[in-house]
């Protein structure tokens, strides 16, 4: 039981941040300005970085099972690397969320509510997927090679795809659920002519949860290339998702400006895929992985901004 208290602190901290988000930042359904969305984004990023101090202390004092014998500093580097990987792989997710909201015609005042519930679902589903992934790695020989090849496949598939042009049609869900096109003042169920229906808000939420699971199938194996410690993998995943939700409202109108980030994500996936494949033969220091991931993201952002402001010839 003594090894459970860091997990209690993690979940408690996450729930505290979500409570602040729901009851302080978004206690009304008023639309947020770009400035307030940026402040919230920085708030969640700052808390993710602040939690790295707790990571350092927990691993330095050996308060958790530490089969890899990570020092506090090494654990922090792996945590930040995992956090950046999850953020970078979530770029496509931003596009997909925008498409989902457009497909279901979700009013702006209901969008934060959906994303808030989405993070609650992610807390559960990510834990399950991480648990399954770790069991596979520990029980089946050669799973690192399988995960590595899967990540490489994902990288090349992502390079060819254009998520901003993808269609997520509600009628695929209508085949399984009775979903109306009504929102009924933000409710998830309604009655039409005395018959029970789910509202379009429920359909959008269901789609968001499903797509988050799909994205997790990419991001979780990628973080396994950095570390297989469950505490680091889970905490970096959840803090990145929380930051992504607030980041969406800041970047929603500027996603097209970061078109070259997809090449940064491709470079990161290529790196972690190869690292997983050759993990038995190649052991890179944590700072090299972190530096490569950070540099890839910086280059993608800088090139995207430069290209967006460069006058056409």
What this model shows, in words?
- The protein is an all-alpha fold.
- The chain has one domain (5-309).
- It has helices at 5-25, 34-60, 72-89, 91-103, 108-139, 143-160, 171-174, 200-224, 230-251, 261-277, 286-309; strands at residues 189-192, 195-198.
- Strands 1-2 form a two-stranded antiparallel sheet.
Number of strands: 2
Biggest pleated-sheet summary: 2 strands, antiparallel
Nearest-integer average pLDDT: 78
Shape: globular
The domain tally reads 1
Class derived from helix and strand content: mainly alpha
Helical residues, percent: over 70%
CA-atom Rg in angstroms: 20 Å
Report how far apart the termini are. 66 Å
Q: Into which percentage range does the β-strand content fall? A: under 5%
The assembly state of the depicted protein chains is single chain
Strand numbers in spatial order across the main sheet: 1-2
Q: Spans of 5+ residues with little confidence (pLDDT < 50)? A: 166-171
Number of helices: 11
Write the H/E string, N to C: HHHHHHHEEHHHH
Structural features:
globular, two-stranded antiparallel ribbon, 11 helices, mainly alpha, 313 residues
Brief account:
The chain is built from eleven helices and two strands. The protein is mostly helical.
List the helices and strands and how they pair.
Blueprint: H1 5-25, H2 34-60, H3 72-89, H4 91-103, H5 108-139, H6 143-160, H7 171-174, E1 189-192, E2 195-198, H8 200-224, H9 230-251, H10 261-277, H11 286-309
Antiparallel strand pairs: 1-2
Helix pairs in contact: 1-9, 2-3, 2-9, 3-8, 3-9, 3-11, 4-8, 5-8, 5-9, 6-8, 6-10, 10-11
């Amino acid at each position: 039981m003594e090894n459970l208290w860091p997990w209690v602190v993690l979940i408690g901290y996450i729930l505290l941040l979500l409570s602040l988000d729901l009851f302080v930042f978004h206690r009304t359904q008023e639309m947020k300005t770009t400035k307030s969305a940026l402040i919230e984004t920085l708030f969640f990023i700052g808390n993710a970085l602040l939690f790295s101090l707790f990571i350092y202390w927990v691993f330095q004092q050996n308060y958790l099972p530490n089969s890899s014998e990570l020092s506090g500093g090494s654990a922090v580097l792996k945590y930040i690397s995992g956090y950046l990987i999850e953020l970078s792989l979530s770029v496509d997710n931003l596009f997909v969320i925008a498409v989902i909201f457009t497909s279901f015609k979700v009013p702006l005042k209901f969008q934060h509510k959906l994303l808030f519930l989405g993070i609650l679902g992610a807390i559960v589903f990510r834990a399950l997927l991480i648990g399954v992934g770790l069991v596979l790695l520990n029980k089946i020989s050669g799973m690192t090679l399988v995960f590595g090849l899967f990540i490489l496949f994902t990288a090349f598939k992502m390079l060819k795809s254009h998520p901003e042009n993808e269609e997520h049609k509600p009628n695929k869900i209508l085949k399984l659920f009775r979903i109306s096109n009504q929102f009924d003042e933000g409710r998830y169920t309604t009655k039409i002519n005395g018959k029970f229906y789910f509202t379009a808000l429920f359909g959008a939420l269901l789609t968001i949860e499903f797509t988050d699971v799909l994205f997790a199938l990419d991001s979780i194996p990628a973080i396994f290339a950095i570390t297989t410690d469950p505490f680091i993998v889970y905490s970096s995943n959840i803090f990145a998702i929380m930051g992504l939700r607030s980041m969406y409202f800041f970047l929603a109108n500027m996603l097209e400006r970061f078109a070259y980030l997809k090449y940064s994500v491709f470079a990161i996936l290529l790196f972690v895929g190869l690292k997983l494949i050759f993990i038995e033969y190649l052991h890179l220091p944590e700072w090299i992985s972190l530096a490569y991931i950070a540099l890839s993201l910086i280059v993608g952002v800088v090139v995207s901004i430069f290209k967006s402001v460069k006058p056409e010839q």
